[in-house]
Each structure stands twice: as C-alpha cells, then as structure tokens.
Amino acid sequence: MEKLVSLCKRRGFVFQSSEIYGGLASTWDYGPLGAELKRNLKEAWWRSNVFERSDIEGLDASILMRPEVWMASGHVTSFEDTLIDCKSCKKRFKIEAVTGKKCPECGGVITEARQFNLMLKTHLGAVEDEGSLTYLRPETAQGIFVNFPNVVNSMRRKIPFGIAQIGKSFRNEVTTGNYTFRSREFEQMEIEFFVKPGTDEDWYEKWVAERFNWYVRFGIKKENLRKREHAKNELAHYAKACTDIEYNFPFGWSELEGIANRTDFDLKQHSALSGQNLEYFDDGTKERYIPYVIEPSGGVDRAILAFLADSYSEEEVKGEKRVVLALHKALAPVKAAVLPLLRNRPEIVKLANDITKDLKKDMKAVYDDTGSIGRLYRRQDEIGTPYCVTVDVDSLSDHKVTVRDRDTMKQDRIGVDKVREYLSGKMKGA
Ligand code: GAP
User: Fold this and answer.
1) Is the pTM of this model over 0.90?
2) How remote is the CA of residue 185 from the centroid of ligand 1, in Å?
3) Mutation to probe ligand 1, out of 186, 211, 243 (largest number of atoms < 8 A from CB)
4) Interval 224-237: pLDDT, tens
C-alpha cells in the first residue's frame, strides 16, 4: 500500500486535498494521470451499461435536491452511525469499535452513545434558517428515483429497464483512513434497474454475476474478487437482500460494490410524500404496479484503488527493478508514448513530434525526450502506458519505428505511416 500511495503522489495520480494548508482529512484530488484514469474508468462503465445494453438509459441529476427527498428515502432519520466520545482525548468512535466501558485509545471516560447523521448539510438562498436547509446527496440513487416517471415518459420505456448515473456523493464519514477507500467526497456509479415484482430475485442474481464479471473484464484477477451476501441484520433500511463484491485490497477484503434488492421501498415512499402516483402501467397486461428495484452501486474511487493495486507489480529485468502498472488498455491514462532515441538530432525529434501529433487524433499520446531510452521505458511502465514508439536513426531511412508492448516487452517494427492505424487497432474493442 505504501508503494502504491507513493507512486500515486510521485507520478501525479492522487494528491491530498488542500495539501499546502496541511490537507483536509478524507478528501482527495486526482492529478493529471489520475484524472485520465478516472475518466477512462467512468467511460468503460458507461459504455458497458448504457451503450452495450439496450435496457438502460443514462441520467445526470443535480447534487442538490429538495430536503423532502431525503425524508422520503429515510436518510434524515436512518442514515446514522452510533457514536461514543472520549471525554479525555476527545476522540470519537463508532460504537462497534468500543468493547468495554473505557476509551479504546487512551482508557479515558467515555460518553453515552449518540446518533450522528452522516449527511452534509447546506443552506440555499440568503437566509440560513430551517426553511433553507438542504443536503449534499449521500447517494446518487435518489436523483434516479425521483426522475423515474420523467424517463419512462420521455423515452417511452417498458419494464424491465434501468437508469444509470455517475456522480459525486458526500458523507460526513466518522471512520476514515485507508487512503481513498472511505472519503467524505466520492463518486458513485449507480444503476437503478426497475423490474416487475416477482421477477426481482432473478434480476438480482443476474446483476450480481454481471457486475462481478465487469471487474474481471477490465483486468481484476478473479482470485482477488469475492461475493459476500449480507446477513439480515446488516441490511440497509431499504433492502431485502444485498451482495457485496469485495476486493482483496492491500489492507484486506473490503467492499468494492454492493448489489441490493431495494424492493418498491423508494418509489412507494416518494409516491406517499410527493403525492404523485409513481405506479407503472403495463400496456400489454393492463396491470398497474410499483416496480421493484435492483441496484448495482459501485464507487469510482474504490474501483480506481482496486485497479491500481491489482495492476501493480515489481519484477527484475536484466538485473534492474521494473515497476509495472499492467492496467487494461481502456483504463491506462496514456495510451502511447513517443520517444526519440537521440534528442540532439533535429530530424529524429521532428519525426517523433509528428508521430505524436498524428496519434493524438485518436488517443492520449505523449512525447518524451527527457532521459535515456531505458529510463523513458521505465517511466511509462510505471504509469501503465501500453505502448512506446521509439524513433531511431534507421527510422530516417527505412521510415519505420519500433513499437514496444508494455506487458510482453516485445518490439515490432512498423511503418511510420501505419503507426496510428496499428495502435488504434490495438485499442479497438479494449
Ligand atoms: N445507493 C446505495 C449506496 O449508496 P453504499 O453501499 O452506501 O450504497 C455504494 O455505497 C458504493 O459507494 C460502495 O460500494 C462504495 O464503493 C462507494 N462508497 C460508499 N461510501 C463511500 C465512501 N465514503 N468513500 C468512497 N466510496 C464510498
């Protein structure tokens, strides 16, 4: 974990938020390479769910919503941790972390347990009173539920179908730590999949399998993933069943994504509180019902951490240490690096720059001449760049360049005019 955190800082994947002021606990900034990785990850998720399937629509709802939404969803009353404070060291603990009658940290006197709501509050408008109170959303899901009739009507959708959304969520987490794993501001990738009651258990099973396979498709080793079904007493207030997909993080097995059977809880609650009828009318069977919902809900930041941890390896090549991020091509922040073998030869530098410019039309490509070729390769391996293109003296006469594969380290000699087509072909279907 230490090695990964250090690489992420050194190579511009992840920085601490407000670092020059000492940092803000449990909030993180994605640097230039982290921002690319994050975009690619979200794109891969969106493509798999919204483009490749025919039964899902996309949505981008606002973070701020009417406070009634969070009353209906149960978050105002139930989205809580039970906490205990230490009167001596002032540290705060979740009740599960306190076993005896003393502070687990300093042995001091502790307070009675109290409820602590995890939603972050804010005020809209000029006056900060109860009437202007609202919340930063703690899940993206509710933006989907309240738009259910809008999407059904505007897209003429029939059940079963789903709505997918990616966006920021906020929680005033008490237990933090483990790097980006549990943050106070994070991103979620959520699908609410609406089904006919009675078919929900089948769809639940299908989605658990589908989501497990998605992580494998994008490169996570099967042996580092497992499914864990929640016991009844662990279930959230809205769920009839839930399975976590867990990843074997460097700090142990932990939740990457949860797939829940939310039943008709949310739509029923919103019907009751808004006074709007959120029933679905089935034209074919002339039935009216509130759909059940299967919800695959993953964290963007946790997925990034898992993909980074899973792809990191160190090996020895010709007596030297090689650090490689074997990221899936679709996720790699930089797809190709063009490297001139001699940076003091203007013709070579020009050709390398021309190739970079051409590649940039199709993919994220960079030019680098700031070191020896060995060092340049190592730098690209460490950030997961799948291909390096080397321009050498021979390139000037045979109009060919060397393309090196990150994983096999095999080198192919390719015509300068074919490089873009060759690399674009390698990226296709990735
Ligand atoms: N809509 C359901 C829901 O929000 P959740 O299990 O609380 O369920 C879903 O969250 C996913 O969101 C988790 O599996 C995790 O990947 C991510 N997540 C939740 N809280 C997080 C936090 N504080 N920091 C980073 N990711 C978080």
Assistant:
1) yes
2) 11
3) 186
4) 999 999 999 999 88
